[in-house]
Amino acid sequence: MAALQSLRLPAKLTDRLSTGWLNFAVLFLILLPLVIGVGLVIKSLPLLEQASTWKMLSSAEFSPQQGHFGFYAFIMGSALVTLLSFVLSAPVCLLAAIYLTEYSPAWLTQTMYFVIDVLAGIPSVVYGVWGVLVVVPLLAGYVAPALGLSTTGYCLLSGGVVLAIMAVPYMLNMLMEVFRSVPVELKEASLSLGATYWETIKWVVLRKGITGIIAALSLGISKALGETIAVLMVVGNVAKVPKSVFDAAYPLPALIANNYGDMMSVPLYDSALMFAALLLFVIILVFNSITNVLLSRVKEV
What we know:
It is a single chain. 78% of the residues lie in helices and 1% in strands. The chain is mainly alpha-helical. The chain has a domain at 72-251: MetI-like (MetI-like fold). Helix 3 (72-102) crosses helix 9 and helix 9 (210-226) packs antiparallel against helix 12. The longest helix has 49 residues, at 2-50. It is globular, with a radius of gyration of 24 Å.
């Protein structure tokens, strides 16, 4: 009896230690975004104390040497290149996921899983090099002239195309898992009531998986918002608001990556770059919050 009690004590101690480590891990993950946000705010304070936040957000003039820190062009560059990549990738991923889960043979679906893994594993710099070697010359030499326009190829559209391709494996993989999780019994019930296969997909599969579809698409947008190297290499990096998809742009991640470590002797320049990082952090936070609210509303319907 005493031996059994001596064995139980270590087991209880192990359970407590395990629970403690699990709680610590969860707490760490919960506090991590808060710590990052507070750190960015602290580093941005020197600029925030000397310049109007509204003026910085609404002005497109960015000249650190003269003390002008307008981030409007960078915010628009990030928003437009992300929106363009979403418009290019979301319909393709949605239709491809429907075909691969509902119509294609098993060997093709398995092959696509392998292709998705390969695309997800390719470094972003490789996508950037591919964009410089393929997308930029294609737009500059063929697409723009065919439309009667002139461009260097380093433009918003190049960044959108590269970002769209980079977002495909994440969105497509998640969409396929969403559609595969729809119970077979629901589809069989729909078919037994006389619905066609496409009607079953439209009214059963898509409706049942609507929350997963929204989550998958939001994942692609979040991926595009934070991408740096590949976009930096093809988007042109000109601090002005693009008026067309063939104009150069300058997203926030590219601004930070291009300039951090250089020109730190310029007053407030380090703080300005940290403020750019804070803007990007807030944009992603607001977007994810809106997505979560939308998902909760959809679940209630």
